[in-house]
Fold BtrH N-terminal domain-containing protein.
Amino acid sequence: MTIVKDIEARGTHHCETTTLGVLLRHEGLDLSEPMLFGLGSGLSFIYWDSKNTAFPFLGGRVKPFDLTRNLAARLGLTLTAKETTSPRKAWENVAAPIDAGRPVGLQLDCYHLDYFRSKVHFGGHVVAMYGYDEHDAYLVDTDQQGGAVRTSRAGLATARAERGPMTARNRSFTITLPTRPLSWQDQVIPAIKDCADAFLAAPIANLGHRGIEKAGEQVPRWLLRAGEPRRDLPQAALLMEKGGTGGALFRALYRDFLDECTRLIDDGDLRTGHRLYAEAADRWTEVSTLIAKAGESGEAGYLEQAGAILHDLSRIERDAMRVLRQL
């Protein structure tokens, strides 16, 4: 058995920030999960529905691995990412750092992991691997998935090699701090402004605040859109609150990030942005509750209410980002 020492499986919500926390703490940098999410400019929004989609998808963050890239660039970290189609090379890419005493981040499809209770394909899942033996790999996942867990090496290999939406070719990565680390506190405002700029300037109508507006138009039709409303709507609501989002489709994480920032920086616009995202987080939870009720009852009125709140949320988040962009 080969195990990296002093790995802490801290209770966290989102897979990518969980993994970043493991890798960075091992390097000596200990930041909260909301701070990792915010410094990585992780907040976004997408309403996705296509012919190949069984049911519409509401996403609340940037694409998988973009958060990691953003954070590494902002803090001057050395991010070493590798991809390959070779199973042999894929294993070497993770075994070598672990043998050298360093944990490794992996992007994979969680469907094939032994410990996952909900068997749904998601190719953008990220875990930290810190050890292995002849049969199993030792991982750190989110708190709701068990924290420190293990899965068979065969299942892990299948998960890493899976092809489909949001997958990567056996992607693995390590992070190294520079000899003279940048002050992460100095990167807070640039991270907020970059996130706001991207959110406000989204190039297509299903992204950013325009995407939330579109969701407000489409959600009231979801009873007709769903193949099995009693299954599809509660599942969509569950993913918004419990699907590794930290609650309220990642808005709770961003609210908490902004709260931490107000304790570092005395700025009225920052406090306004925090207040608006605290309101947004509460309202997103209302939306998920109403969507679940619509699926359980078959009553379209709940979706009409959810649609009205989404129209409000488009305005709230647009106003919040406009304020935060001015920092």
